[in-house]
Each structure stands twice: as structure tokens, then as C-alpha cells.
Design brief:
By secondary structure, the protein is an alpha+beta fold. It folds into 3 domains: 40 residues; 51 residues, Structural Genomics Hypothetical 15.5 Kd Protein In mrcA-pckA Intergenic Region, Chain A, CATH 3.10.290; 175 residues, Pseudouridine synthase (2-Layer Sandwich), CATH 3.30.2350. The chain is 30% helix and 19% strand.
Length: 335
């Protein structure tokens, strides 16, 4: 089996070159971040001045009051912390609205709604497909929800011993602790990585993208590096390629390779299945113990130049590619 699928993760550059590129990227990010917040401060200052001017004009014209124009509104960009007002929601399904508000994915929102944790106009609604009306007010956890306009996309190189959830009743460390300085927006992980699995993890408040990447029909590819307790023999290697029958059905992988020809216990595996603990179960089914599992690629994104436990924002190009990822697979077939 060719190892072409894994060569793209080999970095031929010298360490000094990689470090310098990383320093330049950090420098550029800090500059852009400073410029962004300077812009926000300037916008707020202008808005305050406009409001002050309107109040002064109102006092001067008490004898003949006239309708005043609202102060100019600035359009929030990036990770803006400005307050937001609801967009038109007419006929939008309730679970989709929750996703747009950055609460969770549509699938998870459906569960929250069925459990009676969401209210519309202060009355519980348990139907995920409930069509909202323009004047409806939606509450979750006693908080009124507004559609999120400031979308955030974060790539995290997840370390072990962190769980992929927004909170944990047992008080264990969560991935949100690693990105708390990244944004004030409420973001949530796309998919899950086990506590003992490391590697690429995406977090966002974009409900539509979360729904897309989580749906099996889009066949999102993932590549893992697997470290076994013993070398993978050729017979088992071939069994995996042919397909295995697990307790929840047949599983096929897209490609398989020895990541290191000198150590047959280190395996590279590519697949698009999103079934729970699927990589571990493949090898456990054949009598192997997975000692280490690292996701090196997800939906075309890698952890290159992102140290373990660190994060970065996605570029506009990466976001655009994700939104059009495998779009042809979901187009309706012609009769």
C-alpha cells in the first residue's frame, strides 16, 4: 500500500526555517489583533459622540420636537464583543435557530428541545421543527438567544487528558480551557476526540458548518497515527483493508500504511466514518492494544506549526474550503 497519503505530513524544511515562519505568523496575528481592537474602540467612540450630539440637539429643540435619526450603526467584524440584535427568524426551525445562536449543533439542539430545556415566549416547546415567528423570543438556560453574527473558527492541537465537551460535571479538564483567551463568543467542538486521543480539533459557533461536517453524507476524511502495543502483521493489515465486521456493522477504511517502515507498530489510517471510537475498535477487534492515537488531519486541515495544547484561527481560504467541502456529494440527483 502506497504511503502517498501520509507524505504530505512530512515537513522537509529545517527547524530554524519553521521557527522563523512561526514567529512571523505570530507577529502578523498580534498586529492584526491590535488593529482590530483599535478599530472597535474608534467605532464605539464615534457612536458615543453621535449619541451625545443627538441628546444635545434634543434639549435645544424641546419647544418643537422632531423625530431624530438613530446614531450610525457600525457593522461588527471578526471577534467583536459588541451587543447584537436578532435577525428575522420567520419560519426558521427551532433547532436551526439554536445552532445559529451558537448554542450547539442542530442535532444536539434537537435533543435539548425534546428534553424541554428550550422555551419560546416563556413556554416549553419540545418539537425541534417548530417554526418560529418574527416576534418569538427564545430562551435557553434562562438566557435570551440572539443569532450569532460574529462567527469564529478555531483549530486546536488537542493534548491528552482533556475531554471534548463544553463542561464536565466531574470537574475534568475540557478543551474550552485551552482556548479561553481566543474569543468571548460561545464556541463548541465539531465532533469528538476521546480523552486519551490527541490532534486536530475544530471549534466554532457556526451551526451550519457543524451540521455539515458532522453529517455522514459529506464523508469528511480523517487521518490518524496509531501506536500499537505490538507490530501489525501483514495478515491483519490485509484484513483491515478488506473490511471488518464489528458489533455495529461493517467498517471500511480509505487507506492504510505503515507510518514507519522500521517500526510496524506505528500505523497511518485514513477513513471517513464518524462512528464512536472506531479507530480503537478496529485494532482491538484484531487483538491489539492502542497505546497512542493522534489525529493528524481533519477535513483537509492539519496541525502543522501548531504546538500541542495551542490553537490558531482558520484563514478565510480554509473557511471557504470547508464550506464547499464535498458539496457535489449532497447535490440532488437528476431524474
Amino acid at each position: 500500500m502506497s504511503q502517498d497519503a501520509f507524505r504530505k505530513f512530512i515537513n522537509p524544511k529545517k527547524n530554524s526555517v519553521v521557527k522563523e515562519e512561526l514567529r512571523q505568523e505570530k507577529k502578523k496575528y498580534k498586529k492584526e489583533r491590535a488593529a482590530f481592537f483599535d478599530k472597535i474602540k474608534e467605532e464605539k467612540r464615534l457612536e458615543r459622540e453621535a449619541q451625545k450630539g443627538n441628546r444635545t440637539a434634543g434639549k435645544a429643540k424641546k419647544s418643537a420636537p422632531v423625530a431624530q435619526k438613530e446614531p450610525p450603526r457600525t457593522k461588527p467584524t471578526g471577534n467583536s464583543k459588541t451587543s447584537q440584535k436578532a435577525e428575522p427568524i420567520s419560519s426558521m426551525p427551532l433547532n436551526k435557530y439554536l445552532a445559529h445562536c451558537g448554542v450547539c449543533s442542530r442535532r444536539d439542539a434537537a435533543d435539548l428541545i425534546k428534553e424541554g430545556k428550550v422555551t419560546v415566549n416563556k413556554k416549553p416547546v419540545t418539537e425541534p421543527g417548530y417554526k418560529l415567528q418574527p416576534n418569538d423570543e427564545v430562551f435557553f438556560n434562562n438566557r435570551k438567544l440572539f443569532i450569532t453574527k460574529n462567527l469564529v473558527y478555531i483549530l486546536l492541537n488537542k493534548p491528552k487528558d482533556y475531554i471534548t465537551t463544553t463542561d464536565d460535571p466531574q470537574g475534568r479538564k475540557t478543551v474550552l480551557e485551552l482556548i479561553k483567551s481566543a474569543t468571548s463568543e460561545r464556541v463548541y467542538p465539531i465532533g469528538r476526540l476521546d480523552r486519551n486521543t490527541s490532534g486536530v480539533l475544530l471549534l466554532t459557533n457556526d451551526g451550519d458548518l457543524t451540521q455539515k461536517l458532522s453529517h455522514p453524507s459529506y464523508e469528511v476524511r480523517k487521518i490518524y497515527e496509531v501506536k500499537l502495543d505490538k507490530p501489525l502483521v501483514k495478515a491483519d493489515f490485509d484484513k483491515i483493508l478488506k473490511g471488518l465486521i464489528l458489533e455495529d456493522g461493517v467498517i471500511h477504511v480509505d487507506s492504510l500504511a505503515y507510518a514507519d517502515n522500521r517500526d510496524k507498530s506505528v500505523i497511518g489510517i485514513e477513513l471517513h466514518s464518524g462512528r464512536n471510537r472506531i479507530v480503537r475498535r478496529i485494532f482491538e477487534h484484531l487483538g491489539y492494544d492502542v497505546k497512542g492515537l493522534d489525529r493528524v488531519m481533519y477535513a483537509g486541515l492539519t496541525k502543522k506549526n501548531v504546538e500541542r495544547g495551542k490553537w490558531r484561527f482558520l484563514s478565510e481560504k480554509e473557511i471557504r474550503l470547508l464550506k464547499y467541502l464535498n458539496a457535489s456529494k449532497n447535490k440532488p440527483k437528476k431524474a
